[in-house]
Amino acid sequence: MRSLATAAPSSWKGHIMTITRVFSGYQPTGRLTLGNLLGSIRPAVALQDRAECLYAVVDLHALTVQHDPAALRARTIEAATLLRACGLDRSIGYLQSQVTAHAELAYLLECTAHVGELQRMIQYKQKAGQARVNRVSLLTYPVLMAADILVHRTDLVPVGDDQRQHLELTRDLAVRFNRSYGEVFTVPDGVHPPLAARVMDLAEPTVKMSKSTTSDAGVIHLLDPPEQIRAAVARAVTDSEGQVRYDPDTKPGVSNLLAILSACTGVAPDQVAPSSYRALKAEVAEAVVEMLRPIQDRYRHLAADPADTERFLVDGAARAAELAAPVLAAAQDAIGLVPAGRGLPVYGGVGN
Ligand code: TYM
Fold it and tell me: Which CATH superfamily is domain 2-197+305-335 in?
């Protein structure tokens, strides 16, 4: 938390006001999903009135796996527009690659991280196991994520369950850097929604719903038309027991549907008890369609005026760069570099 005492208007003199800084990131590797919305975007929207919030479409992260440049650009613009449509319009939003401090700090943190701890990351092991050729950036990806967070001295990071390990690494790197070179970084905390922190794939309810799966059968994308959503939910894998009850271990499919319904309606999973799987699916489909309707309407409106989103992103990048610059300079200074523009004499000689 930062003290605003010096920046406060004179009528506030004597009061120390603190603000919390929030950062979240969204990879444009595919199209944003219901999992992204429930796990991170909605919690980030809710924090906007209580904190200084930043978010980035983390395009550099999308380069860690095989990609098509034109598709990446299109997905990046779609994600930026859609995040605004979801309600992230009172935050500082920008494209990660336009704020170079992210990549610059990532290098300093790479000089703090150990190969072994990166090799232990679950997502690295999963993705490296699937790929024919592994990019070095796939291994160093969590360090860039740490830089995204630490460069803003972030207090809170709204993320789904799948990012817990990366966040833990971010905390470790912050603590290690601070211990080695002096207090530069804030050690951040994660914010995870009580329900739907891990929305599962509807067709394969033991794996996370993901924008980069090879089959889209069990994925709900935020811009899917209502009939497609209804069809995906109707096809959702359940079990043969026939009883609607919440038990993620033995009934992953039904429990996932209950968690989604509950996250959409605000009613606890054990309080939502449709009589049959068919009734449950019908309720889930309608709840999701209704939740997405205003988002899709707003997306269409925003997409009709790309210059407006471009302005939003340009302003966001300028503000984010301004906030990141002193933190990057402090890290450079602490680690023994000479930050640009500081002048040499203050550092004196090396001595004998
Ligand atoms: P990404 O782009 O995969 O997902 C963005 C956010 O959505 C959450 N999420 C989910 N939550 C619940 N259920 C799901 N099925 C689901 N799928 C995704 C993710 O947890 C995430 O919060 N490495 C990050 C992007 C990133 C980032 C950052 C996040 C880069 N730098 C700094 C926070 C702070 C990622 O791949 O998220």
Answer: HUPs (3.40.50.620)
